[in-house]
Design goal:
121 residues, alpha+beta, Alpha-Beta Plaits, 4-stranded antiparallel sheet, 28% helix
Length: 121
């Protein structure tokens, strides 16, 4: 997965949808444990309506917001994609343009300053 990511050290949120809460929790836990995300918020019970293979589909999903630094967003997105059960997962990097500075500083404090080398965990 290739993405154009700002590596200036600002915070971003990575949005992803999952088929269920258990999958979101397993992937979210792995990302926090690996240091790729400061935290993940999981919201169950999302209803999705989308076009897939020429048909309009409906389904229940869970949405997750991963908070990380911009320099880790590409690696985090790739690590989510590798574990994701969907053929075409929704993984989006969203800019954070402001917020409580204590919270933003915490995100920076608990994620590495530089993108770790090697493959995604």
């Amino acid at each position: 997965m290739t993405a154009a990511i700002d590596t200036s050290g600002t915070a971003v949120s990575v949005y992803a949808t999952f088929p269920d809460v258990a999958t979101a929790e397993a992937i979210g836990t792995a990302m926090v444990e690996a240091g790729l995300a400061a935290c993940v918020n999981i919201l169950p019970g999302m209803r999705s309506i989308y076009r897939w293979n020429g048909a309009v589909e409906r389904g229940e999903e869970a949405v997750a917001f991963f908070k990380t630094r911009a320099g880790l967003a590409g690696r985090l997105s790739a690590a989510i994609a590798v574990r994701h059960p969907y053929e075409t997962p929704a993984i989006l990097v969203l800019p954070i343009i402001g917020g409580d500075t204590r919270y933003l500083d915490w995100i920076m404090a608990v994620t590495p300053n530089e993108t770790p080398s090697g493959p995604a965990p």
